[in-house]
From TrEMBL:
<dbReference type="InterPro" id="IPR015943">
    <property type="entry name" value="WD40/YVTN_repeat-like_dom_sf"/>
</dbReference>
<keyword id="KW-0808">Transferase</keyword>
<dbReference type="Pfam" id="PF13360">
    <property type="entry name" value="PQQ_2"/>
</dbReference>
<dbReference type="InterPro" id="IPR011047">
    <property type="entry name" value="Quinoprotein_ADH-like_sf"/>
</dbReference>
<keyword id="KW-0723">Serine/threonine-protein kinase</keyword>
<dbReference type="InterPro" id="IPR002372">
    <property type="entry name" value="PQQ_rpt_dom"/>
</dbReference>
<feature type="domain" description="Pyrrolo-quinoline quinone repeat">
    <location>
        <begin position="100"/>
        <end position="284"/>
    </location>
</feature>
<keyword id="KW-0418">Kinase</keyword>
<dbReference type="InterPro" id="IPR018391">
    <property type="entry name" value="PQQ_b-propeller_rpt"/>
</dbReference>
<keyword id="KW-0732">Signal</keyword>
<dbReference type="GO" id="GO:0004674">
    <property type="term" value="F:protein serine/threonine kinase activity"/>
</dbReference>
<feature type="signal peptide">
    <location>
        <begin position="1"/>
        <end position="21"/>
    </location>
</feature>
<protein>
    <submittedName>
        <fullName>Serine/threonine protein kinase related protein</fullName>
    </submittedName>
</protein>
């Protein structure tokens, strides 16, 4: 082979490898909604039947509280938590907490390292079902990032060395002191940080290697808990954000708003999902809206052809929808009433079906191996076929509260319970 051609080919391959690292490592679960951003592990095959003992490869006790989801990269599993820094005094309005990142060996569950990002007393309380460390971490295989809201964003090496931190964003004032919880998203050389609250809201794009601000876009939005989703389009990559007043799209490179659409409901928590040129955004507290949007619109697209379809009842609240195999699955509000619709048309295959043991939902549904996995706050687990016909194939319980969305890699599922981190495997 001609040496110059070989070198050019190698250079192209290296460039491709760097730009597509998330696709090369598609078997990792590096973000709380998985490799596709939709809650799906395309090549995984975890067990269908499991509980707190059956098909449990290992489980470990997790100190403190967090509803942040685990993320997995190769042989490492990362979680965050907040635990009391000392014995609380009865007169203390709020506890002094250690905000921590923990890394476990995927094979054995052994703790590899833990790091205290910061120790502080929260400036405001949180909802009784929330914690002070609700945002999920994320990783690109080189660094792991932990966002503790008003306590800051922290970047670590995979071996637990602090690289940089940003704790200068201010203090969030959340609606009704419900607490914080939006997770960051990595895209290319950026890490996107949502900052919606009762004060000055914004979306930040930071240099993931230094933490320096690349751009900041102000948002006329009150408190929200959704996570940004980056999607491709014909001319530029877009950052999709849910919102209390409107759903919006931003240019990834500049932060400029591209399009928006009203119709959302109060305190949005569900994050967007995307496939085949369509993005799906919904919310379901004190109202209902779930819409499918084409990406080439500009400005206010409400009432235009760019709104492919929308639903105005029984839409998701805290749990994000699942987009799998051309179907979109979602709960009614926080209830366990499940609906499934055709992603292209919005036509319902079934609506608000009650499933055994599902009553109060925080964790988002996930899919793998032809099945959909559903978790209730009471620890109940229901597994259904990933199909247009509702068919329950297994029911069980983890024996403790499950608020965090599980992570799925290969034949394993990592479940963050209130007290333990479980690895279930065939």
């Amino acid at each position: 082979m001609n040496r110059s051609i070989w070198i050019a080919g190698l250079a192209s391959l290296l460039c491709f490898s760097q730009s597509m690292i998330a696709d090369v490592h598609a078997d990792n679960w590096a973000h709380w909604r998985g490799p596709t951003g939709n809650g799906v592990a395309p090549d995984a095959n975890p067990p269908v039947e499991f509980d707190s003992r059956k098909n449990v490869k290992w489980k470990v006790k997790i100190p403190g509280r967090s509803s942040g989801s685990p993320v997995v990269w190769e042989d490492r599993v990362f979680v965050v938590t907040s635990e009391p820094a000392s014995n609380p005094n009865r007169s203390d309005r709020l506890p002094r907490l250690n905000f921590k990142v923990l890394c476990f060996d995927r094979g054995s569950g052994k703790l590899v390292w833990d790091a205290v990002a910061t120790t502080s007393t929260p400036h405001e309380p949180t909802h009784a079902t929330n914690s002070f460390a609700s945002a999920s971490p994320c990783t690109d295989g080189e660094h792991v990032y932990a966002h503790f809201g008003s306590r800051g964003l922290y970047c670590y090496t995979m071996d637990g060395q602090l690289v940089w931190k940003r704790d200068d964003f201010g203090k969030m004032q959340t609606r009704n002191s419900f607490g914080e919880g939006s997770s960051p998203t990595i895209e290319g050389e950026m890490i996107l940080l949502p900052w919606d609250h009762e004060g000055d809201s914004a979306l930040y794009a930071l240099d993931k290697r230094t933490g320096k601000t690349i751009w900041k876009t102000d948002r006329e939005e009150p408190t929200g808990w959704a996570t940004p989703l980056v999607v491709p389009s014909d001319d530029k990559r877009q950052v999709i954000m849910n919102g209390d007043t409107t759903a919006r799209s931003y240019d990834l490179e500049t932060g400029k708003e591209l399009w928006s659409c009203g119709g959302q409901t109060q305190r949005p928590a569900a994050s967007p999902v995307y496939a085949d040129g369509i993005v799906y955004i919904g919310s379901g507290f004190r109202g209902a809206f779930l819409g499918a949007f084409e990406l080439d619109g500009r400005g206010d697209i409400e009432g235009t052809r760019n709104v492919v379809w929308h639903l105005d009842r029984d839409t998701p609240d805290i749990a994000s929808p699942l987009l799998s195999s051309g179907r979109i699955y979602f709960y009614k509000g926080k209830s366990g009433l499940l609906s499934c619709a055709d992603a292209k048309t919005g036509k319902l295959f079934y609506s608000t079906q009650r499933l055994p043991g599902l009553q109060n939902i925080y964790a988002s549904p996930v899919a793998a191996g032809g099945y959909v996995y559903l978790f209730d706050r009471n620890g109940s687990v229901v597994v259904i076929e990933d199909s247009p016909t509702l068919k329950v194939v297994a029911t069980s319980s983890m024996g403790e509260t499950v608020d965090a969305t599980p992570a799925i890699v290969d034949n394993e599922m990592f479940i963050r319970g209130e007290e333990h981190l479980f690895c279930v495997a065939k």
